[in-house]
Design a protein that fits this description.
Elements: E1 4-9, H1 13-24, H2 26-33, E2 37-43, E3 59-61, H3 64-68, E4 75-78, H4 84-95, E5 99-102, H5 105-122, E6 126-127, H6 138-145, E7 151-157, H7 160-172, H8 176-186, H9 194-197, H10 200-214, E8 224-225, H11 233-241, E9 244-254, E10 259-269, E11 281-288, E12 292-299, H12 303-319, E13 344-345, E14 351-361, H13 366-376, E15 381-387, E16 395-402, E17 405-406, H14 407-418, E18 423-432
Helix pairs in contact: 1-12, 4-5, 5-10, 7-8, 13-14
């Protein structure tokens, strides 16, 4: 039977891993699909550049238009990154009747609605398992494996760089800047680490997870995003003493009021599974009505894991090449005309518990002033700890854990606390989550 021919745009780490996986497991793949699946063409900027994969049977092209319009190519695999050119190529591919596989989370999060509509109109598939959490098949798990469930929340460690930094800060008491430099030396972080440490990468992934979980259009601008660059070693240590760990989480939650989408540092109890995901590993926790709590854990990046997800998408499409578009799994798991315009909550409307840290004058009455302000806003306190000032120091550190409250009330309370003459500088606020105790709607 005629092979399924693949054209790859971009032969970096993931591209070469995809080539090698398809070649190494060719016999098993042919048995699973019913016919061979081969990389017949690839597009690269410099065909003469040495690659880490065997390209002896691959025709190299320099012009992307030649690849996306090639009559022998059945599936185009976009692994070049970026958004503008990737979107143009994706639209060209689906317009030419080619199925598209991508690992590009920014492309899907920011332009997926447009790309899916074009693919639907042309009767082809866009597959993007590799865009979220590398080798963890989280897209298929939520979209297909949990298709009979109502999803209440999705929360995950979906950026390995941030998790590595926070793990090192906790395990070794190191400062953020020190660990970031090591992450860059190890290749975990880019020279410009903004996308990773400020949460943009995680926000792209959360946008995708939320859409397939709740059946809403992709809406990247609606994600509240806060990075970890302001988290100190002191905060990490304080959290540990209180029985918590700080993780940089992406959280999508459906409530009676709407859907909240947020990426930020979060205190979670040490006993929870997410708190015990360390280093560069990823994990996604899903809360659903029938299954309850489920956790998906694995390598979230790297050539092998991400290439594995790319190949899985290729094989899904290869199996379905004789099926009609109506028989395929919808791009976001819901039929396009059934996507819901559920209200998207701003961060001020989200309810959470909080960790507060502040520096205060070491004098009587300070604690009463602070707790009095919190009381005015209906904010109850779970725990308080005050560190004694060192010799000759006139200031003490106050640590508080609060019960759950709407964030707008907490923000207003903090403004009044910071205005006190006895409070020195800004109040540090980190959200606290107890996923297994949250009420489902």
């Amino acid at each position: 039977m005629k092979p399924v021919n693949i054209g790859i745009i971009g032969l970096g780490t993931v591209g070469c891993a995809t080539v090698e996986i398809l070649k190494a497991n060719a016999a098993d793949i042919a048995d699973r699909v019913g016919r061979p699946v081969v990389v017949s063409h690839a597009c690269v900027r410099d065909p003469s550049k040495p690659r880490s994969c065997d390209l002896s049977s691959v025709e190299l092209l320099k012009d992307t238009a030649d690849l996306v319009n090639h009559p022998d190519i059945d599936i185009v695999v976009e692994l070049m990154g970026g958004t503008d050119l990737a979107l143009d190529l994706g639209l060209q591919a689906v317009a030419a009747g080619k199925h598209l596989v991508t690992a590009n989370k920014a492309l899907i999060a920011e332009h997926g609605n447009q790309l899916f509509a074009a693919a639907q109109a042309n009767g082809v598939t866009v597959a993007y398992e590799a865009a979220v959490a590398g080798g963890i098949p989280i897209i298929k798990a939520i979209r297909e494996g949990l298709a009979g469930n109502r999803i209440h929340s999705v929360a995950g460690i979906i950026n390995g760089t941030g998790n590595f930094i926070l793990s090192e800060m906790r395990d070794k008491g190191r400062a953020f800047d020190d660990v970031l430099r090591e992450a860059q030396e190890l290749g975990y972080a880019e020279a410009d680490p903004t996308f990773d440490v400020e949460g943009i990468d995680a926000a792209h992934k959360l946008t995708i997870l939320a859409s397939i979980a709740f059946g809403i259009p992709l809406n990247f601008p609606a994600v509240f995003t806060e990075g970890i660059s302001t988290v100190t070693a002191e905060d990490v240590t304080n959290a540990e003493k209180l029985g918590y760990r700080i993780k940089h989480l992406g959280i999508a939650e459906q409530t009676e009021s709407g859907v909240s989408l947020r990426v930020h540092p979060t205190l979670i109890p040490q006993t929870q599974l997410l708190a015990n995901v360390h280093g560069v590993m990823n994990a996604v926790q899903v809360q659903s009505d029938a299954v309850g709590e489920s956790l998906y854990y694995g390598a979230g990046a790297g050539g092998g894991p991400t290439g594995s997800a790319v190949v899985a998408d290729i094989l899904d499409i290869a199996r379905a090449l004789t099926a009609t578009p109506e028989q395929r799994v919808p791009f976001l798991g819901f039929q396009p005309e059934r996507l819901k315009n559920i209200p998207l909550l701003t961060i001020e409307a989200v309810e959470s518990a909080y960790y507060l840290r502040m520096r205060a004058a070491d004098q009587p009455g300070v604690m009463a002033e602070v707790t009095g302000i919190l009381g005015q806003f209906g904010i109850s306190i779970e725990a308080i700890e005050q560190t004694e000032p060192v010799q000759h120091d006139t200031q003490a550190t106050i640590i508080m854990l609060t019960h759950r409250v709407i964030e707008q009330k907490m923000v207003e309370a903090i403004k009044q606390i910071e205005a006190l003459q006895t409070i020195v500088g800004a109040v540090t606020m980190i959200r606290v989550e107890h996923f297994n105790t949250r009420q489902s709607t």
